[in-house]
Amino acid sequence: MDFQESDGMENAARRVAHLLQRPEHLEKVDQLRRKFTRQKAAVDARLKTAVQTQLDDVKTGLNKLKSALEEVQEIKGSMSDIDAQYGSCQELERHIKQIRDAHWQHSQLAAAVDHLKHIYTVPTVVTEANEMIQNSNLLAAHQKLHELENTRDELLYQMHKSSEDTADVRSVNQPLLRYFEPVKELSSTLGAQMWFILQRLLHTVRNSPALAVTTFRIIEREERADAYAEERRKNSGFQSPDRPKNWREKALSTIDNAVMNRFEGVQMETRDIDKAWLGRYLMDLRKIVVEDLVVVKNLAVPLFPPQYEIFDRYVNMYHKTLTSVMEDVGGQRMEPGEIITLLCWLKQYPEMMLADELTVDVSSFDPLISPRYVKELEEQYLHLIQGTVSDWMKRMIEAEVKDWWRTTEPRSNVDKHYHTDMPVLLGQMISQNLDLVQETSIDLRVKVMELFVTMLHEFQEKYEAEIIKFKNKYIAEGRREPVYFLQYMIATVNNCFQLKEYTGRLQDQALAIAETAPMSARLEEMFAELFEECKKRFEIIADGTLDMLCDIVFIDLDMFLADLLTKKWIGSSKAMDTIDATVRDYAADFKSLRPQYFSTLMNALQKRLVKEYVKALTTRRSVFKSQDDRKKAAAQIKGEGNKVADLFLGLHSLSKPASMKVLGLIAEVIGVKDTDMLDFEIQELVRKNTDMKAEHLMAILSMRGDVNKSQAKQIVARTPLAEETDSTSADGTATSASGALSNAGGYFSDLILT
After folding, report:
1. Which class would CATH give 377-544?
2. At what angle do helices 520-561 and 595-617 cross, to 10 degrees?
3. Interacting residues of 526 by C-beta distance below 8 A, sequence separation 6+
């Protein structure tokens, strides 16, 4: 207490010090004293009230405890009195045994009288119940059946209790059971009607939902009756006839069978009747599954007792039955399109079940077809499609070759470029097959794309071989047939352009597939390599066909090229005029090439023509001994070089290429009069034709007639060609920087002099 008093004094002192911090605050001392006096009086009043309330509550509690004690003592006395009275009742029990026996007999007689009413009316009630069943009044019919079964069971139970001998009970029960045989038949009739309703459950819930509710009310009643009968059997050993009925199990089994019959009712056509039999069949299955489960979810679930979990049960039954159906379908021999149809349906099945109408997740279920078998189907499809596409491509090439022998020109587009139907047909065939697998797994789509690009390579090899074979046969037979050889080869070149473009689009599609696949980087690299090689091969085929066209032109030009630089050529323009006319004639046909190929072919013709002219100049066909002859020959060479340039400039609308100057440079070497200027012209010729060799220059100098072999060698020695001669290997192959690689595309590189 001293500590509390001291602590209180300290707190009070701090409070007063806080309130009287300045001298002027002393004026408020009286006011503060009155304020704290009022606060103390209020606190004292609250304390007194609280203490008084607690005292009153304690007093009330003590009074209740006293009353409870008195009541407990009173109850204890009453219990003692009751115990005493029960003890005196034991003697009374022996005196009322006769009354108890009389009561039991009276109860039995009353029950017998009540049962007699039912016994006498059994035939009538059975007839009425059958009529009710026929009128679909099943609930009332079941009520009568229930009453009859109760009567029968009660009579049998009484007989069971009254006899200890089982054999006696069985012999006494036989007449009673025979009498109640119609009741058993009535139960079977009612059950058959209910099973019929359950077999058509989906129809019933749509059109007669009350009938479905009645059926399940009866089933639940029978389940309770089975439970009661089983309980009585355990307690008394009495077994009711026809119990347990197990109608719930029978009902669910009936529904299961109805589901199986539902699928068996879908007619599976054969391939002979309808090529699209599988697609139609799977579409029917999809329609059945979705429509039926929607009906169950929206109409049947509210009618069924919750413990049936009828929607989940239907989903499981439909999934199980579909698994069996898919096994049957997969066990048949299938065409490639049918395999894809099945694989697509299997992939779409989870999405179908997750639709808004159903929202069923089947991911936890076993797959309709095992992953191993799906892989087998995919491999089977790849094998079949490889054979089918291979045959398609073979027939396509055969049809293309057959078209080459036609006696009419190939088709042309709006730009008058020749083409055949083969690129479009090939593209359609590949696109249709790729579209077919669009909804399948990404793994199969990758494999199919890889298969097609591989088969495109095979197609290219066969296509190129047929082109070469066709060209050789055409030349071997004197170019008489086919009439439109040139036009169809032009179409072939244009076809290569279309095929290359389609391959590019196919490459984009393949890369898009690869992006969504596992290990996409490796797949993208693989597809890029395969397709680039494929596009390059189409370019090679096109270039090879252009070379073929070039060969055909020069077959006609060879006899006129042979006249160049001969005696009859000197002073005559006949050979070059004929060459000019021939090239122009062919160029008119070549206009049906696509512009890039026409340009390539014109460049090739121009270069080859100049090469042939250079070849004529270096094969010593003529020697011009006089300056006058050399001057005339140089002028003619220069003029014909310009004519060749003008010819191709007019056909191709290109600027004059520098390579066309080679003839003019050679003409200058031949026609120059001053031998001092000869070195200059030779240096210019060698400088602008880096693929030229010493023997080429020697051959040109020999045409002058005024330069002997020794002088020619001295002239060559003063040119860079002398260094090339020194660096030539023993087998005649140049090893200097002016070798074949650096001279590719020149006019002398492939010109070999003998």
Report:
1. mainly alpha
2. 50
3. 450
Query: What is the β-pairing status of strands 411-412 and 418-419?
Result: antiparallel
Q: Distance between CA 606 and CA 510 in Å, rounded?
A: 41
Write out the two tokens for 629.
């002859």
Q: Where are the domains of the chain?
A: 2-87, 117-259, 266-369, 377-544, 562-673
For the record, the structure tokens of 472 come out as 């050789």
Q: Residue 354: which H helix or E strand, with range?
A: none
d(CA 212, CA 205): 6
Reported as a single tens digit per residue, the pLDDT across 47-72 is: 888 888 888 888 888 888 988 888 89
- Cα separation, 78 vs 84, whole angstroms: 10
Contact criterion met (CB below 8 Å) for 617 and 664: no
The backbone torsions φ and ψ at residue 615, rounded to the nearest 5 degrees and listed phi first, read -60, -45
d(CA 155, CA 160): 9
Helical segments of 96-137, H only: 97-120, 122-134
Burial of 463: CB neighbours in 10 Å, binned 0-12, 13-18, 19+: buried
pTM of the model: 0.66
- CB atoms < 10 A from the CB of 103, how many? 11
- Omega into 423 within 30° of 0, i.e. cis? no
What is the pLDDT confidence band of residue 238, given thresholds at 50, 70 and 90? confident
Distance separating alpha carbons of residues 282 and 329, to the nearest angstrom: 10
Alpha-helical (H) ranges within 208-309 are: 209-236, 247-264, 277-295
State residue 410 phi and psi, 5-degree precision: -65, 165
576-595 in b/e form (b: 16+ CB < 10 A) is: bebbbeebeebbebbebbbe
Question: What are the tokens at 588?
Answer: 């008119």
pLDDT above 70 coverage of the chain, percent: 87
**Total residue count of the chain as it appears in this document:** 754
Q: Nearest 5°: phi and psi at 505? A: -65, -40
Residue 91 corresponds to which tokens in the numbers above?
Answer: 């003697």
Q: What tens digit of pLDDT does each residue of 609-647 get?
A: 988 888 888 886 788 888 888 888 888 888 888 888 888
Tell me how far apart the alpha carbons of residues 488 and 403 are, in angstroms, rounded to a whole number.
8
pLDDT (0 to 100) of residue 739 = 33
pLDDT of the residue at 540: 94
For 418, the enclosing helix (H) or strand (E) is strand 418-419
Write out the E strands in 121-193: none
Residue 334 CA to residue 377 CA, distance in Å, equals 9
Residue with tokens 């407990």: 72
